[in-house]
Automatic annotation (TrEMBL):
UniProt region (Disordered), positions on chain: 28-51
Keywords: Endonuclease, Hydrolase, Nuclease
Protein name: Putative HNH nuclease YajD
4Fe-4S found in the keyword field: no
Highest taxon, organism lineage: Bacteria
Length: 117
């Protein structure tokens, strides 16, 4: 079978037939990365959108900070969810907190986790 002649890529490279030019491979990778990124950010958007809605409803029902009785504007996870969606969405694990109490709770939690490691 006669060999097909090499082709000239748009970038000016001579490329053996049936082979992707490095510039084409690069743009393939870029397209794929862009696609992955879009998919990731859209799923993240959906997640935060739902959380935002659920959080607001929870705060409507539990408007007082669990610790100081002030105005709650944050939903804290009593058990740190660490990315576990079951723990994350378990309402029994939610606590209404004001910003102050929430940030001090988070600091305490961070101290605890740095001690462990
Ligand atoms: Zn090329
Ligand atoms: Zn508070």
């Amino acid at each position: 079978m006669p060999q097909k002649p090499p082709r000239i890529c748009a970038c000016g490279h001579r490329v053996a037939n049936g082979i992707r030019c490095p510039c084409e491979r690069k743009s393939d990778a870029e397209r794929k990365a862009r696609h992955d990124k879009n998919r990731k950010s859209s799923s993240a958007r959906g997640y935060t959108g739902t959380w935002d809605k659920e959080r607001k409803e929870f705060l409507k029902r539990h408007p007082r900070c669990k610790r100081c009785g002030g105005k709650a504007d944050t939903v804290d996870h009593i058990i740190p969810h660490r990315g576990n969606s079951e723990i994350f969405w378990d309402r029994r694990n939610w606590a209404p907190l004001c910003t102050n109490c929430h940030s001090s709770a988070k600091q305490r939690e961070e101290r605890r986790s740095t001690k462990r490691t």
